[in-house]
Amino acid sequence: MIFALATPVAQSALAVFRLSGNGCLDVFAALLERPILENRRVCLRNLVLDGVVIDRCSVVYYGSPNSFTGEDSVEVFCHGGLAVISSLTSAFLSLGFREAEPGEFSRIAYENNKLFLNEVEAVADLIHSEDVERARLSAAAVSGQLSEVVRSVGEEVDSLRVFVEGSIDFSDEDYNFLKEGGVGERLRGIKNRVVDLIDSCLVSTKKMSKRRVLFFGPPNTGKSSLFNGLLGFDRALVSSTPGTTRDLIDSEMFYNSVSFELVDSAGVRDAGDLVEQKGVDLSNKEVDEVDLVLVVLDGSTESLLPVFSEVVRGKNHLFVFNKLDRGDGGKGFNCLVSAKTGEGVQDLKNLILKSIKSSPIKSKKTFLVRGRHLSLFENALRQLNECELKIKQEKNIDLAAEDLRVARGCFDEFLGVKFPDDLLGDIFKDFCIGK
Fold first, then answer.
1. What is the pTM (predicted TM-score) of this model?
2. 51, 224, 285, 287 - which has most CB atoms within 10 Å?
3. How much of the chain exceeds pLDDT 90, in percent?
4. Which domains, from first to last, does the chain contain?
5. What are 335's strand-pairing partners?
């Protein structure tokens, strides 16, 4: 039997303990002044150890299998004083409960078929979500919507595989089982579903965990100087030579209790240097992935404002006129600054904060997934493409059936029906205690 404090170890109004293990209520009852006779109902009880009241708590008992873990479970809502938390921890240990390992509750839930493996991972992603949009995408996976889509596609693949394997036994007959059975059409339908699935997924990466602000524009307009000016220290190389920045440079910034990442990018121009061109291509791609684009122009490039307006159309953006110390200008810009003197930089900070807070970009994606999930979907699609080629040629039909079997295996691994031996350890090591 295990227990854990499911809330942070800090003084607060409430703290929550979770207990799990078949028969745990009978053991926990040693602390109860009065027994709990009802399942799934909040009961107010004094918890007593050695004749001394520890606290008056709200207690809920969940009988197996109707609990998060699938085992008998108890949740204890106590006052959040550190002394209370310490006393209850000691009491549970004295009764024979063991402190849970990170993610152990979720792991038990998975092992008891209460959650698919991807849903367990989505729980962790939901807990670690730092903005509303990613929380929404994670919640969609936690709720089982993604699991249902993948399970359904997997069953279609399996059904088609059984038909293809069956057709092998009748390959000498005049009847064309593959063509008459609509195998090609069924296969294309499955492929389309997998493509739609891939398109609906946003991969959760470290880069996406914070709001990102991209400095964008032509070379030598002072993007790197302004980048350094906002940070308050030199993070990016500054030079009078155009195109100094050849790759993305990012750094974390805190302002008014809000954390976001500033990203300096290569200047946008027709670069002959292949290394620089790679940086330019990368920064153009970044425009579609960041939360705010700062288009930085100066007196010599402000005529390009209409061009960059088209590039960032539909994106959350601000037009920034830099090098104000060199003279007037900046008509049609959101902010006028001088990275050299610092004029207008504070106003720019306020505009960035306002834009990030009030204009969140809504993702067109449906689910938040991990990199390994997307790799499984892409591998399944490759296997389906291989299968389609063999079906069209009506050759190596036994290998086509094997392609379908491998594709189905990708979906099974996603759901946790099968998995590499070390996968569970890698997943649950990042969970918090009590989940």
1. 0.58
2. 224
3. 36
4. 2-100 (3.30.1360.120), 132-200+369-428 (1.20.120.430), 207-358 (3.40.50.300)
5. 320
